[in-house]
Structure formats: structure tokens, C-alpha cells
Amino acid sequence: MFKNLSTQMKITIVIASIFIIFGTSALILNYRSKANKEANDPNAVKISASFYPLYYITQKITGGNDTVTNITPAGSEPHEYEPTTVQIRDIYESKLFVFNGAGLDPWADKIQENLGKTGVKTVNMSSKFNILNSVEASEKGNQDPHIWLSPSMYKQQVEVIRDQLVTMTTNSTNKNIYNNNADLLLKDLTKLETEFKTRLSKCDKKEIMTSHDFLQYLARDYGFSVVSINGLSPDREPSSLELAETTKLIRDKKIKYIFTETLASPKLAQTIAAETGAQNLILNPLEGLTKDEIDSGKDYISIQKENLESLTKGLECR
Ligand SMILES: [Zn+2]
User: What angle do CA 238, 51, 70 make, to 5 degrees?
Assistant: First the structure.
């Protein structure tokens, strides 16, 4: 093979070959150990959450060590969203699936039982709480699913997810990570809760009007009440009779502000505001973040602070 080559050249080729062989096997070994690490590493648990608030908690508690997927994409409303086949397959490949229930993510209710049979742990968050009835016909089953908007109920959700993750893992380092991260999040949420309590304690108004019934739990916590515009769905045009009734209600109750939400169309509230001179204020129901909100670094806590600003204005707090 090397007949025509000089001895020096032959030596060079042999040495080069040795390097190539060793180099390649080193690469293969390196690749293998990585793959093994992922398979064995209890940190790399795959978790799916049906929508943003549950995704946020899970992401915070796992601290980026696990793979957490939010099924409802940025800018979509979970009330309307149906996951793709690829997403459903992803959920089946997860170790844990967390969803809200109470009619928010009805597709999740449907697959829950089957997921359990294939060994995926599921948490139906609303089953841990007393769920209020919704006045809204559009909320399926007439249950009010918006339990994440109450900071105190949200704190309990952190505990539920933390306990689930801690129970599922056998590794004590990971248990510590989950517990410590959950403690940090709970501390931040307690601060938020206190801020709500303080700022909403001295208000001239005791009632707000919204275009979508999503504030019952929060209102109950902080002692104000919510009038939902005729229980209409946010995208439906009201009849002239409904419009007249609502307009009268606003005038009678001297309502100055109507709360509209970010993801749904504010059309109805705007029509009524134009009719009565009431102003629109934005409240974010936190059902999902838009891409812009994600890019600008907003999260559950910062958006709840913005909501608090709107509420103090609408309730005329001092
Ligand atoms: Zn909603």
C-alpha cells in the first residue's frame, strides 16, 4: 500500500491515522456519555403544562433543569385552543402533565384518564379548589376556571406542583432544588399578595365592570364585586336592548371605568364606553402572554402588578 512512499511519509500517515481513530472514538464516547446523562439524569424530567400560569410555576420550580412545555402558544386564548397531534404526542411522552380544568382546557379533561393509564402523572389543578359558578354562558359547564388570578390561590398551586415534583423524584439534590425554588417563588407571591391587600384596602368604589367574567376569585379576596357586562361573550355584538340595559346600569351605578382584557376583543366594552362616557381600563387575565410580552421580559408577577395599577384606578383607591 505504501510501496512508493518514503519511510517518513509512512510514519506520518500512521500517526495521522492513530489521531483520527482516537479522535473519532473520543467524539463517539463523548456523545454517548451525553445521551446517557440525559437518560439517567433525574433533572431532565419532561413536563407539559396546559397554559401559561401553570407553565410559569413549573418553570420557576424546576429552575430550567427540566424540559417544561407550554401547550397553549403565545398569543392564543386557552378557552379556544385545541392542541395539535404533535403536542398531544408530546404530552404522552411527558412524566407530568399539569392542567387547569373547570372548563378552561376541556381537551385536557378528555385525555386525562388515558394519560394515567400510560403512566403519565396528571394534575387537574381546579380539583384542588372550591370552584365558583360562572355567570357566563361561554365558560363551558358554567364553572369559573380563573383560579390563577387570585394571588393566594396561585400560591397554593405552587405548593401543589412542588409537592408533586418532590414526590416524583428519588434524587435528594433535586428535591432540594424544587423546595428552594418554590420557596423563592412563594416569597415573591406573598409580597404581591401584600401589595394587593394594602393598595386595595381604602377604595371609594366597591364594584368594577368587566367584559368577561374572570375576576370573581380576586374580587372575593379583596372585598370588591364584579359586574360582568350582561354575561356576554367578549366577541359578540350585543343587541340594542342589551346595550340599553347595560348603559342604564352604568349610569345608575355611576361606573366610570370598564375593564377590558388584553387577549380578547375589547369591542363591546368600547361600544359601551363610547355610549356612556365611561373609560376603558386594561386588565390582563393572564391566560397567555403575547410574544411581545415574553420578549419584554414580562411574567405573572409583573403583569399582576400592572393589573393592580388598573384596579386601584378603577376602584378609586387612595
Ligand atoms: Zn377566561
Answer: 140
Average pLDDT, the chain: 85
Tell me how far the alpha carbon of residue 307 lies from the centroid of ligand 1, in angstroms: 15
Cell numbers given for 308: 393592580
127 CA to middle of ligand 1, Å?
A: 17
CA 147 to ligand 1 center in whole angstroms: 10
Distance (Å) from CA 253 to ligand 1 centroid: 25
Residue spans of the chain under pLDDT 70: 1-43, 135-141, 230-238, 262-266
* Beta-carbon count within 10 A of 197 CB: 14
What spacing in Å lies between the alpha carbon of 139 and ligand 1's midpoint? 8
280, amino acid identity: N
Cβ atoms < 10 Å from Cβ of 318: 8
Judge contact between 83 and 94, C-beta under 8 A: no
10 Å CB burial of residue 88 (0-12, 13-18, 19+) is middle
Q: Compute, in angstroms, the gap from residue 148 CA to the centroid of ligand 1.
A: 11
Overall pTM surpassing 0.85 (yes/no): no
